[in-house]
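Memo to structure team: turn this sequence into structure tokens by end of day. - J.P.
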Amino acid sequence: MPVFIWSFPHLFHFLEYSVMLTTSFPTRPEDITPLPLGSRVPSIILPNEDGKIINVNALLREKPAVLIIYRGGWCPYCNMQMSSLRLVEDEFYKLGFNIFGISPDKPSKLGESRDKHNFKYQLLSDSKMTVAKSFGLAYKLDDDTVKMMKEKFNTDIEGDSGETHHLLPVPAVYLVDSSGVFGFNYVNPDFTVRMDSQELLRIAQKKYGSK
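Reply from structure team:
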């Protein structure tokens, strides 16, 4: 009988691979399990719309941040939310915040959104859904839904992300302080209902304005 001797690195990679094979995601947005208020923000190291790698965690040590996790530039509700945030972004900057929009769109699609909507804040590409998974926001579309979106709405989520995982994030908003902790979060499985940007600003002013 053959005997397999595992070194720790080999065992680690085997277990990591096994987890990847067995990991499943909810098929309904209502069934996600997002990180709770007070959690420490997971690693966020992603390319921006120009392909430059941005380490959000390192930037958090300098400034707090608004994180907007959205479905993509193809989503009209996302675009309305992102555009409304643009109207109050200067007020957030006065409070000392950075603002990041994170979606599954690949960098070239982010660039199209930036140019079309004149976004000033940075957009980051979570095309492999690494951040959405770590935040507990990822859910999986079935093949029929992916096909329907492409045929009926001309929305190609594979083309926009460059990936075939068929995962989307439940839209979410976070205020993260400079210690990397969620001071406020808003997660709603109903993608048609979004956090009001003026209300988000009021919360940030009340919570961080005197600091």
